[in-house]
Amino acid sequence: MAKLKQLAELVGGDVIGDADLDICRVAPIDQAQSGDITFVSNPKYLGMLSACKASAVIVAPGVDAPGVNLIVCNNPYLAFARILTFLQVPERVMRGVMAGASVAESAVVDKAATVYPGCVLGENVSVGSGTTLYPGVVLYDDVSVGNDCILHAQSVVREGCQLGDRVILQPAVVIGSDGFGFAPDGQSYYKIPQVGIVVLEDDVEIGSNSCVDRAALGETRVRRGTKIDNLVQIAHNVDLGEDCILVSQSGIAGSSKIGNHCTFGGQAAIAGHLTVGDNVMIGARGGATNDVESNQILSGLPLMPHKQWLRATMTLPKLPEMRKEMKQMQKRLEELETLLKEK
Q1: Rounded CA separation 87/304 (Å)
Q2: Residues classed as catalytic
Q3: Distances (CA, A) of 32 to 29, 76, 83
Q4: What DSSP string describes 150-203?
Q5: What is the pTM assigned to this prediction?
Q6: Tell me, what's the pLDDT at 43?
Q7: What confidence tier does 50 reach under pLDDT thresholds 50, 70, 90?
Q8: What is residue 99's predicted lDDT score, i.e. its pLDDT?
């Protein structure tokens, strides 16, 4: 529980209304009750304010809501996230290495970390302060995990891979599985040893069942602050820039280099050995088959500017009718040509 003014200070906002109001939790605008705080970040929900039962609402400057207690700030969505964390995310209690965990003698686990039963830590593993390894986490030999990380159940980090600080792996993430590399040998294939590693820099989060493959040589790197959704594939030797967003089922093929602050929609794909610049957005199911310059919003396969793609897709439903009209025009043209020849 916190006073409304305390929450406003937390997010750098201003209170309109009762600053000493007690707030217990964050709730959706259509479900909030007395003691709750909610938020409006999309203008289409402003009409719901009059019927909202929340004790307070987080809004952007310029919102007029007579009789409603408000926190006014420039980014209501970010404020909602920070207040939600403050009010409803419990602090993790560090428990040390718990009975039932298998930890090699050469592993170094900070005293202010937690290793749950069922975890397996190999030789020369290091785990930093404030880090939690939930049941079933497996760290192969020579893995390093930084401070304040969270590795959820059944996540696996293979040999030699490095995780920075505040890295989050959701359940069943695999870091450092072999890259998909095979050399043709007649009608069969010879497996290319994947002897590189994966490096996840600080503040990277990876969603459930996503995979980041180890490099054949050198490293696969996911740079600071990048967030990866569930069911995403990052292939060997990829260099993925800072503060990128990769939505579910997207994938990056081997040895491609992605710039900073890129966003790839669901099922977007980047072919191998390409370079994508900074601030590139690729819509759902878009596919890059050539290098992509910075500062573009693109969609489709092959990629094209998003507005151009919208016009193209609007044309698709009309294609059968256009085809029919073209056949009619072709027939009429042939008839006219026949008449001209007869004259």
Answers
A1: 44
A2: 236
A3: 6, 16, 15
A4: EE-TT-EE-TT-EE-TT-EE-TT-EEEEPP--EEEETTEEEEPP---EEEE-TT
A5: 0.89
A6: 85
A7: confident
A8: 96
